[in-house]
Write a structure and sequence with these properties.
Aminopeptidase, 6-stranded mixed beta sheet, 2 domains
Length: 355
């Protein structure tokens, strides 16, 4: 596919572009680990959604990328999503001309595949102007992501914490908790904690295969952490890395043990790893301002960065309203479902929830 510009060419990536794509991600300061081809492979292998990763070139040099999936939902049609199952995908580009070229090609793709809407989860304000290319754009701004700029060493990181925070980290150790790095052989321990926490939250859980595919495809750029009380796993999390950034897509603890501060031990070890390995930014993930998870992340020194979630619809389409009451009711029903049944049904549902 070629853009109308004489210089910029936009096309779908091939297997031969993999190394060049990763080089671009590594040198782009705004790129998150979700931009990696490893995320693409995991989504394809675990859930079967079709990727349409776009690459922009000028003079044979990559000047921008946009990772996209055709996200099909039975009986509801399809969307183009950047990216499914995470907070942020985004258009990454060297200049405005390239950004517009990638967006224009996305509109062409949407028309070709007859998708109902385009969803781009971004940290860029004014990325898409309203009523562009005969589409209407809605923007959600209810979430922020919490970012911590990391110092050059664990000691500097620790010394920068308030005394109250340091005492909370020490509390986990005094309570006899132990942190261990895990691997694929520990997937059952991870999933036991993860699935029980999702059930307690009233949310369908990802499949165990999905977690496995993420770990396998990210390889050395993924780390699993586990917290134990005696031999009982009570906390778990996964971090994903680029050359400069660490993101934490999932962290869970068992509520019955939260008084022992397993979450403090989990996050402290992840932060130590990031600082010791020369990472510049730790991305704690999305939160709503002033809610519980926001305050938890803020205590580590993380600062909010506004998220802009764009949704482009046909100018004739109607934006569907949502009901917080309906969502709360569904969460309550899910919590009442037996855990064994929730773990069977959950992944079948979760593959069609893009966030």
């Amino acid at each position: 596919m070629e853009n109308e510009s004489e210089k910029i060419k936009v096309r779908i990536v091939t297997a031969q572009d993999r190394h060049a794509w990763h080089d671009y991600v590594d040198r782009c300061p705004d790129a998150t680990p979700y931009c990696s081809m490893a995320w693409k492979d995991a989504v394809e292998q675990a859930y079967g959604h079709r990727p349409c990763y776009l690459l922009a070139e000028e003079g044979g040099v990559i000047t921008g990328i946009l990772p996209l999936f055709i996200f099909n939902i039975p009986f509801s049609g399809s969307s183009l999503v950047s990216l499914p199952f995470c907070d942020i995908g985004d258009i990454l580009a060297d200049n405005e001309k390239t950004r517009k070229a990638l967006l224009r090609e996305t509109i062409i793709l949407a028309e070709k595949h007859k998708v109902k809407k385009i969803i781009i989860r971004s940290c860029q304000e004014h990325l898409i102007e309203n009523d562009i290319f005969d589409c209407h754009c809605n923007v959600e701004t209810g979430k922020v992501r919490m970012l911590l700029q990391l110092p050059g060493s664990t000691k500097e990181l620790w010394d920068g914490f308030k005394s109250k925070l340091r005492s909370q980290v020490r509390k986990a150790e005094k309570n006899g908790l132990i942190f261990r790095w895990g691997g694929l052989e520990d997937l059952s321990d991870f999933y036991d904690v993860f699935s029980r926490n999702m059930h307690a939250l009233g949310s369908p859980v990802h499949s165990k295969t999905w977690i496995e595919r993420v770990l396998v495809n990210y390889d050395k750029n993924a780390r699993m952490g586990l917290v134990f009380k005696d031999e009982q796993p009570i906390g778990c999390g996964i971090i994903l890395c680029t050359e400069s950034m660490v993101s934490i897509p999932w962290a869970s603890t068992l509520r019955d043990y939260n008084r022992l501060s397993p979450n403090m031990m989990l996050y402290w070890n992840f932060l130590q790893y990031a600082a010791d390995n020369g990472k510049k930014v730790f991305d704690f993930g999305r939160s709503t301002l002033n809610e519980g998870t926001y305050r938890f992340k803020k205590q580590w020194g993380a600062k909010p960065e506004q998220l802009f979630w764009y949704c482009l619809n046909s100018v004739h389409s109607q934006k569907k309203s949502s009901s917080n009451n309906n969502r709360a009711h569904l969460e309550q029903l899910w919590q009442k479902m037996p855990l064994s049944l929730a773990n069977v049904i959950g992944p079948k549902v979760r593959k069609y929830i893009s966030l």
